[in-house]
TrEMBL record:
Belongs to the FPP/GGPP synthase family. InterPro entries: Isoprenoid_synthase_dom_sf, Polyprenyl_synt, Polyprenyl_synt_CS. Coiled coil: none annotated. The keyword Cytoplasm does not apply. It comes from Paramicrobacterium agarici. Its cofactor is Mg(2+). This is Geranylgeranyl diphosphate synthase type II. One of its GO terms (biological process) is isoprenoid biosynthetic process.
Amino acid sequence: MRTSAIEAPAVDLELDARLAEVIAERRRRAARFSQPYVQLWDAIADIVMRGKKLRPRLLLDGYHAFGGQLDAVALDAACAIELLHVALVIHDDVIDSDDVRRGELNITGRFSADAVARGALRTRAQNWGEASSLLAGDLMLTAAHSLIAQLDVDDETRRSVLEIFDEALFVSAAGEHADVWLSMHIDDASSYDVLAMMEHKTAAYSFQAPLLLAAALAGVDINVHERLADIGTHLGVIYQLRDDVLGVFGDEETIGKSTLSDLREGKETLLIAFARAHQRWNDVAEVFGAPHLTVADSERLREIIVASGALDLVEALIADRCDRVHELIADTKLPEHLRSRLTALATYCRTRRS
């Protein structure tokens, strides 16, 4: 179940098979209801099976590096963390009013487009699509918690993994809530505010939780957990900072979304927090977050972001965080395989292009 290349991990047949089994069982249950409900599970299956599986692979790598032996237990925990990711992604698209994910229609887009094709008014069709997404996200959350609750472990371990899982979702929700608040631009956001949001929204469930779950399931001493949490925080911030850069300066075909989206949404990133300090920001402030942002306006925004030094500052921060996490990893007594895996993961988070 181990992978050596972060950029193009080998297909993990066991992980994919178990995920497919979890979704297929629920799809069979859905057959008792309406055809659109079955179609909803088909759409969920597409999302689940198409993902990079970064989080579950990190959990499995950590678990085996720590000497864990209960492969079926670790596999279900890995599936749970992936379903949690899918749930948060689906809900995030609704929050951001996105109909596309990685170049393809998401659940909202699929169901609303189908409704329009059948003659529904666009407003009603959009409501149908968003309702379908919200319910799909809810279903993934309950499926994830069900897998965690039913792990074949002793009561103490079960309580521990449930607490880790619950905390990951709790903190991630706080980060998502803060992200929406910051994007309203009611208060001036500091770089500290934005970094805290990143740590909560991305790092908690994407990197901290997989590592902590791996340690808890393998019976690793609790003293190791704090260091794993620190490493996970840095990895999450690096990952999100790169994501924010790609969202404005990335290649649209590679990242699978428009590079106008974050600027049109008015997403408060460190790029923007730093660029606001530039004397020319007032020239473009009115178009940032404009619903009908044009390509020309987006180019003006990019020009100011670069001229302000914001892009260079963020790139420097990514490099600094990467150096710091490499030092943290090297300074631990973690198993050699896990240290190698985490070091490669940090480099991937820093240099990824999609």
